[in-house]
Fold this protein.
Amino acid sequence: MLKYPKTVALVSALCLAMSANSAITSPLTQKQIQSQIVGKNLQAKRMGMTVHILYRTNGTVTMKMPITSGNGTWQFKGNQICMNMKKGPRRGVTCVTFEHIKGNKFRNSQGIEFTVQE
């Protein structure tokens, strides 16, 4: 008989939850990003403002917010999409992965949730 059956049950449940969660939230592959993110209008809420991002198929990216905008280029680095903003509030290189949440909703590795606009 087990000395700590409740502890074993709790640890087992946590392990199952973690493995199930990681399967659900695995990062999109480069091919998936290409088909589900690139060329689509993405919308998110950031600091109470609506943000629109478009990774164009020609390798350029634009970001629009009510008080500012930015643009630059993007490229893949493995399963990350890296944007190099030349103009706007977030200048420089930022790389993120994306995960599919459900339907037309995605989350990047910075925790920002995006909706693909139809």
Observations:
- The chain has one domain: 27-117.
- The domain at 27-117 is CATH 2.40.128.640 (Lipocalin).
- The longest strand covers residues 69-77.
